[in-house]
Structure formats: structure tokens, C-alpha cells
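Sample pair:
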Amino acid sequence: MVMPGRYGLVKSVITDDDLEAETNAAMGDADLNSIREGIVQERELKIGEIVAGIVRRYDGDDIVIDLNYKAEGFVPKSEFEAEHLPLPVIGEKIEVLLDEIDNNTLILSKRKADRIRGWEKIINERNIGDVITGKAVRKIKGGLLVDIGVPVFLPASQVDIRRVNDVGEYIGRDLQCKIIKIDRERRNIVLSRRKLLEEERDVKKGDVLKTLVKGEIRKGVVKNITDFGAFVDLGGIDGLLHITDLSWGRVSHPSEVVGMDQELTVKVLDFDPVRERISLGLKQITPNPWDSIGDKYPINGRFKGPVVNIMPYGAFVKLEDGIEGLVHISEMSWTKQISHPSEKVAIGEEVEVVILDINRDKQELSLGMKQIEGNPWIDVVEKYPAGCYITGRVRNMTNYGAFIELEEGIDGLLHVNDMSWTKKINHPSALFHKGDEVRTVVLSVDPERRRVALGLKQMTEDPWQSSVPAKFHNGDIIEGIVTKLTAFGAFVEIDKDLELEGLLHISELSESKKIDKPEEVVKVGQRVTVMVINVDADERKVGLSLRATHEVDEEFAKRQKAAEEAAAAAQSEAENK
């Protein structure tokens, strides 16, 4: 309809076609729907909220997102690259999280939005007890982070059945675990690989125990190594491979024979199905070398081998794997006094030995080294017969005597009791010094015990057979010098030439009072007059008394006084007449 107007005639009604044409003329070929989507909606956005937006363009390292809001949002391209995701195309609709608002600029995060959606999906779809597989991605305090679409926690105690020293070795591995805790409010999930392994092991353990037979051969994998042995997984249950059952030979530590995760063929030695304990053997797979020991190593046979261990009492020599023998320290030399085996051999040194004895039951082998050489003691009897005189050097001294070197490696013992007929020798140092030359007589030779007995006093006549009994009698009053004090009395030298001492017992020191110590009456070096009260040639003892001399003096004084009184009386009687 046309109506008159101020400037002429105008249409009073505009049809839809006219409006479309007019709009197109004003805006060109622009898409009206796109324009509508671009209109900013006046609404409030909250930090931490997940919103949907349209990718509009790329701006350097950022992707510009249209959230239908009064300001544009930006997502770093690095978030897609870090997650190995393809970059979105312009016009694509994506979900992002509003991380922060900075001067009307919306900082967005695609990664955080995906994580939250992932948590929501997993928490809603998974329950406690579900089995799930994830990759261990990072070591954190107390355990591992496992990626199951979102990072979840696997405590170190739940990584394996056995204690794991370093959980970092699991990083990068796909781990099948069981969900043991879900905290929906805190979006927290805790996994356990151990529980899953234990359940699987219990099933396998039952199967193994049903089929296990003592004496059978089985395959297993080393799962743990200790000082006393190795634990071998037989497929659900562990058996102990003790260190003594690893090898027929010497083993200082199980790690010398087996390694972690090594597959072994072992023998079931024993098992207790109630206590679930299994004893395994590795050496029992091979024959016991001790079964044929006598055939291979006969008595008096000579063999060579390295020294593998040294103890204070001897050295162990290895003849082959599983066969070791002991060379006792006494079997190392015929002549030298060896204080420690290390003076003769060293670890790793190869030595030649002779088989001395075999104890198959105890699996002990006695070896000798000195038997390789000739026994010099066989010639000693001929070279040093009893009664011959020899001169040797004092090589060593002990409380009981002096060792006199007859020749290199051959010593004779001069016992303290064979040094003097009359004098008590408490220590050889009273007569000799180390290195002194001494002439002695050979008393006896024992080649089996490798001993030569020497004598010094035997080079002179025994004074107790003639000189002492002839010179000293009971009742003799003699003089002597106190040489030594003891708790029971004093020793007095009564003949310097014979080096003869007599014992002045504490009970013979005084008659007038009880003596507790000899020094109350006498002292060393003091000259005393004593009476001989006992001469025992068989016991080689002379008993002395100081008290008896006092009694003699008193008796003499009494007699002297009586004589004087009698003489005085006789003189008085004569005068009266």
C-alpha cells in the first residue's frame, strides 16, 4: 500500500523479500547466522569454569577463542603440543577452562578442561576394586604418578609384593593395578599393583602346592637376594635357595652365583604345605663331586690348586669346584715355627699339596704342604744322638725354657729344670741372653713329635749324689745369704760353688712370736746363721732353721751359766774349809 508523505509517496508495508534485499544491499554477502553468533552476550563467567568456544584465529603462539563474551580468550598452542594433540581448525568448537582474567583478556586452558572432564569420566565410570592399566609417568614423594587418562597415585608400598628400593625404575612401564580408593570430592584415586599381584599369586600358589613333589626339578625366577640365600618364584610361591645349596664349592655371597630376575632350574629339596615353606637346591642338579673323591684324589696323591681362604689355623686350597681341603698350620713346614699361615701362603697363590686324609661323611679333606719336601727330622736322630755334646745359639726363650738352634729349622729345648742341679731357675733369662752360644748335651730325640731335649746340668756330676750329702748334715750350724723371699719363707744360698740354696721356712724363723711375712725377720742380702734340719737327696731339698740356732744359743748360755755357778760354789766351799 502506498501513502502520501512529506517527500512524496512511500510504501507503508515492507515484505520479507524486500527486507532481505535491503539487508543484503546494506551488508553485502555476509552470513547473518555468523553475525548473530558473534553478538556478545552479556553474561558472567567464573574462573575455573569450563565453557565451550569457537576457534576464531591464530595469534602468534596463542589460539583465539570466541566465548560469545565481551572479551576474547586465548589458549597457548603449547598445551596441544605438550599433550601431542592436533591443533584445532578455525571454526572448530572446543571446551576450555577459564584460568584467569587479565585486563579483560581471558586466559584459557584446554589441558585443564580435558583433565577435569577426564576425572569426571573416570570417577563416574570406575569403582573401587576395578582393574585398570596406566603408564607410570613420574616419581613423586611416597610413590608414583600413573596416567590412566588422568594422573593418579600409586604408593611405593603398593608397587610390588616385595619392597622396592627405587620406584623410579618403573617409570615408562605400563602397570596393571587395582583401584583401592576413590575420593570423588577431591578427585583423588589411589591404585595398588601389589593387591592385584597378591591375588594372582594366591591363585597360582594353590596350583603349585597341589602339584609340588619333593625331589622334582622345576624352573623359577630369582626375586630376592639376601646374605643367607635367594628367593626363587616357582610361579606363585617362593622357595628359599639357601647359600649352602647354591654350589658344591665355596660361596661367600649368593650374588656370586645368581642374579635378580635370573631364570634357574632348581630341585625341590623339601616343602611344608601347611607353613608354605619350600627348600630348593641348585647344586643338587649336578653330581656331588664328593661321591667320587677317593677315586679322583687318592691318599698320598700330589695335586695343585689355588689358596682360596686363609684362617688363623690354616689355609684352604681349591682342587676343583666343590672340592677344597685344609692345610693345617702344622702341616706347612717341618722345621719353621709358623705363627700364621699368611707367613707361608697368600690368597690366589697356587700351591702343591699332598692328600693326607679324606672324611667323605663330613666332606673334609686334609692336605699337607711340608710332605712335598723331605722330612729333615728323619736325619736328626743320626746327626744328634742322645749323649752327644752340641753348641747352639739361643733363638728364643719362654717361661719354661730356652730354644737352642742346632741348625736352620731344627731347635732343641733346654728346659729350666735341666739348667742347674741345685739352683731354682724361674726364667732362662737368669742365665742367658737371646743370641748367646750355649754348649749342652742331647738328652733325647723324638722325630715324630719333632722334639730334641737338651741338658746343661747333665754336663756335670749330680752333687746330690755325693757332694751335698757328704758336706751337709742335720744339726750343722752354717752361714748363708738370703737370696729370695716368698710367702712361705726365704731361700738362703749355703754353697756358692755348688749354687746350692736351702729353704728357711717361715715357721723356722722365730720361736718367740708368730711371723706373717719373712721380711719381718730377714731381708734379701742379709747374712744369717742357720741350722741344717733336713737333707733330702731324693727330693733335692735342704731344710734350714733360724729358730734352732737361737735354741742352741740359749742352751749354750744355760750350760755356761751352770758351769760358772758350779765353779763358784766349789771355790767357796774350798775357802770355807
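The longest strand covers residues 50-59.
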